[in-house]
Amino acid sequence: MSASSVVTRFAPSPTGFLHIGGARTALFNLLFARRHGGKFLLRIEDTDKARSTQEAIDAILDGMTWLDLHWDGDAVFQSERAARHVEVAEAMLASGHAYRCYATPEELTELREQQRAAKQPLRYDGRWRDRTDWPNDQGYAVRLKAPREGETVIDDLVQGRVTVQNSELDDMVLLRSDGTPTYMLAVVVDDHDMGVTHVIRGDDHLNNAFRQLGIIKAMGWPEPAYAHIPLIHGSDGAKLSKRHGALGVDAYRDELGMLPEAVNNYLLRLGWGHGDAEIISREQAIEWFDIGGVGRSPSRFDLKKLENLNGHYLREADDERLAGLVGPRVAKLIGRALTPDEQALLVRAMPELKPRAKTLDEIADGATFLFAARPLALDEKAAALLQGDAPTLLGKTHDALAAVRDWTAGPIEEAVRQVAEEAGIGLGKVAQPLRAALTGRTTSPGIFDVLVLLGREESLARLADLRT
After folding, report:
1. Is residue 309 part of a domain?
2. Of residues 239, 242, 304, 381, which has the active-site annotation?
3. pLDDT tens digit string along 170-223?
4. Coil, helix or strand for 152?
5. Which of 226, 314, 348, 404: CA 20 to 30 A from 308?
6. How remote is the C-alpha of 18 from its chain's centroid?
7. Which keywords label this protein (predicted)?
8. Is residue 310 assigned to a domain?
């Protein structure tokens, strides 16, 4: 294969969001093209005007941009190419590879009912295939004159060799009776005109490939290489649905708090692998990706695995970038926007907030104590820790910390340890009520890091609110 000759495409229908399976298909197409120095194209298949929306188009483009799935050139809109699709159908009529069909909807319904009653495959019977006694006052559909003898073979790059008897393929409609092209015709014409060499898509399109080859062969066009990827299933092996995580890409960003590099890495490993490698950068993916490495079995989507992978990428991420993503989430939780100084504090806090988090929302939730108003609201567990002797102990801790002038982790820890030693208790017996008093919770970053981040004045004020 000539490197520069490779052209792949992603061709979503804009009837909804960019779903997770579509994103994986786009990723595989992009990686294959980049691996071979070729082009990755985008085509919006918006011929179904009743269901296609601008909102869905925007969501698809937004999702692809977020995932860094950047296509070459301008996106092609299939609806703008209808005249070209009609032109090809008329050329096939002229060459005898297609024919006029005057069967009415009522006749076709009756045919299907007869076939259903006889337990036969529901297939057009070719009743107008060889007729020329055309009525002058009636509209007609244009159908492909599919071969009836022999077989059609596809050497699929994922599925292997697949053979279908031509007797099983019907004369599909190319132009409807109102003159509009069908999806099956439009896809083939657009792939040819865009120079697509490799059609990489879900294996639910495998049957379509055999029918679409009838058009390609009739026109004498080069056949693309096909790679039909198994679909993604849920963790229980059932077809992927919303309960498994079959959400729009935007939901992984906005609702689940994922980073794009984590989603990319996870999708890459759904059905493809490179040895034992789990963490794979885009650069490595381009270098390693081979369509032959895609398995034939459906892969299982596991949200917990994605979250764990996201946790890795959160720990690796730049603190300022993370704070920029987390800030609006914190603002939503506390009911107000962060000030510039508070945003700067969030950046400083990131090294302490991100190590245990798996999502942006978890980081945001863990950061709220930094911006809480006094007196601090305590959750149930924190309130329980502040019963009994705890307020007295906190009073002693307050006084010890008030004497600290160098407000850094070392001197702070020394002062708290001194309180524990004088009380004859372990450090944890001081640290736990101290954490509850400073954060309103029983979990937080390290207590000395909490004190440093809150600052001397705020820390002492929060403790003073609770001392007796």
Report:
1. no
2. 242
3. 999 999 999 999 999 999 999 999 999 999 999 999 999 999 999 999 999 999
4. strand
5. 348
6. 7
7. Aminoacyl-tRNA synthetase, ATP-binding, Cytoplasm, Ligase, Nucleotide-binding, Protein biosynthesis
8. no
